[in-house]
Amino acid sequence: MDFFTSYNSLLLWLPALLCGFLSGTTCGTLGAFVVGMRIPFIGICVAHAALAGAVFAALFGLEGQWLMLPALFTSGLTSLLLGVTNPRWIKMDDNVMMSVLFSATMGLAFLGLGLFSIMGRTDGDVRTLLWGSIAFCRWSDVWIMLCVGALLALFILVFYKELQAILFSREIATASGIRTGAIWGGFLLLTALVFTVSLQSVGGLMVYSLVTNPAAAAFQLTRGAARCILLSAFFGMVSGLGGFLISAWTDLPSGAVIVLLSSSIVLLSALWRLGKKR
Amino acid sequence: MTTQAQHPVPVVHLSNIKVTLGKRDVLSVDSFTLQEGEICALMGPNGAGKTTFLKLLLGMILKQTGGTIQLFGQTLSPHNQKLLHQLRRQVGYIPQQSLVAGEFPLTVREAVATGRSATIGLFKRLQPEDWQSVDHWLEELGIANLAGRCLSEISGGEQRKVMIARAMAQNPRLLLLDEPTANLDMGWREQIIQTIQTLYQQTRMTFILVCHELETVPACCRRVVLINEGKLQADGPLEEVFTPRRIQELYGCQMSLSHRNGRYFAIPDPIPSPPTL
Known about the structure:
The structure holds two protein chains of two kinds.
Chain A: H1 7-36, H2 40-59, H3 68-84, H4 94-118, H5 124-131, H6 139-158, H7 160-168, H8 170-175, H9 180-197, H10 199-202, H11 207-221, H12 225-250, H13 254-277
Chain B: H1 3-6, E1 12-21, E2 24-34, E3 39-43, H2 50-57, E4 65-71, E5 74-75, H3 81-88, E6 91-94, H4 108-120, H5 128-140, H6 156-169, E7 174-178, H7 186-203, E8 206-210, E9 223-228, E10 231-236, H8 238-241, H9 244-251, E11 255-260, E12 263-268
Parallel strand pairs in B: 3-8, 3-9, 6-7, 7-8
Antiparallel strand pairs in B: 1-2, 1-4, 4-5, 9-10, 11-12
Helix pairs in contact in B: 4-5, 4-6, 5-6, 6-7
């Protein structure tokens, strides 16, 4: 790829690089909370719900950023449903219910893809929603990601001590008078928002890893909430930006490269932790 | 003497309580009152309704509950969430499970500081005096040396002390402890009992603790409430509540009570002789 050698090419690729930087940092930051609250399955359900929403929207003729609106609707609805539903009402374990929802949302997404061929339409653009593509990144995507990232940062700054209490124990936080319902609802909606805006660049099947892997690596290496969140954001940024650079260099799908890079960071962190223990 | 001094407002007052989960009545309490500075142990077989009793006091099952729950003289209602949150801030709660934060690398000091989060309210940051309170309780409970360690790196007994320090940092008027000595070895069990006893003597706060074994009831606790099949069956000193006949009825085994320095122990009576080989 010639974007390293030509100033004009670099300008052309700048939105893609910024998308990688922003989606990585945002997903990494969010991941520290998602993994810390032991709700990674919520993440995978929400990611696939967003994917299903976008696929069906494309089926009805929407394209570009307009795909984000139905994706946001389905992911937001799924996250809120998961937030308010108590699996014990239907005698079901939390993880089993998440697994059922995960397979249902993935089934819906693939049903949408199947309908494309039945209706005799091309689904090339929609298929990139599965794996992600840097070709999708435009300046408008950068601004949207920047806004969502800023919103997430603001939410964390404002409710930092309450989020810490929820990370310690949601049950105890509620019992001690913290309004966990509202904060939990806000957090789930932000989760849906982050997954949705990262859908096109990272891919619906891959975005989940960009949320969990940086956090899993950070947990291995540090102590203390603030340091852990910052390190997770840094690992997310390295995975996102690095993944986009490698993808641009090699023409490989950006989502796959990002996931493999973030998985390597987890592996290296685990090895470092093992070495330190000995 | 004022009227209030003659009739002090009880910390807990329950009347005509009926908790229904689904179609099943899980707890019914005609009347229960706990005065300021009292320490009370809730005892009974597994599934008797002890944890439900604590959740009732925390206002966590208000929609499933009929009757009146009063904390510090004020009535809990699902329609007054503001009051509910205010009252909860005055109640320290230590649930059964030991490890709470899982793998998130929250430090012990940060975990104890979460006790201040509700007290200082939304949109406010922890001030130096909040951290002083956190450090004070870390010192009091003898876990100051663990302040920088992660929760996943400390033992079950140490985690239990962190939970107590967190609840105390909340500066509560009522402390609810759900089986504080469960799954601990003999040494840690005694340490936690002594900690509860010391805290009670120092603060004279109101305590309710759920216990399974007679030997885990601290010596300072002179009131035992027996719950069985969702009903309060007895209320009084331990030796009056746990008569050999009642133990036989409840647990199906013959035991007699022994006591020393205010602590009680149940031992099989008669002790069966070992089988001959």
